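step: validate -> pass
step: tokenize input -> pass
step: predict -> running
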Amino acid sequence: MNDNAKAMVLASSIGDALSLGVHWVYNTNVIDKKYGRVTDMLAPKLASFHRGKTEGDFTHYGDQTLLLLESVASGNGFDPNRFADDWRAFFEEYEGYIDKATQATQANFNEITQRMGGYLIFRNKPFLQQHFYMAMVPGAPFYRLSSLIISKTSI
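step: predict -> pass
step: emit ->
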């Protein structure tokens, strides 16, 4: 990974961990009163979504980002089928917060895998709607942006 990509991943990871303590708290007055400006890692005490997490841990978004990086590194590049397998296995054991988008993705995986006779492949149209794959599909909503990011960071 080149220096730009490393910096991007590091900044994303730090930002995610830094946000954990106030994640899902949208009233800035509550945050200001309790913590002021957030400059240190905090345990998530203001909201109940991240029970069991401690200061410095990732949110569920950071956990999935790390999973994606591990999947890319283990296979020497991005493979949507390998990542789908990794993602599903990860969430079978996940004890952190699972948001509605993740729940919907799990349900879609289960429904489509049953329809496909247990075989999952990302060339099937229903998967083009999944939130973590849309950026990789030419013509899909975030493809241009993800292509630009990839070209500028040499990922």
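step: describe -> The helical segments are 3-19, 28-34, 60-74, 80-93, 100-115, 143-153.
step: cleanup -> pass
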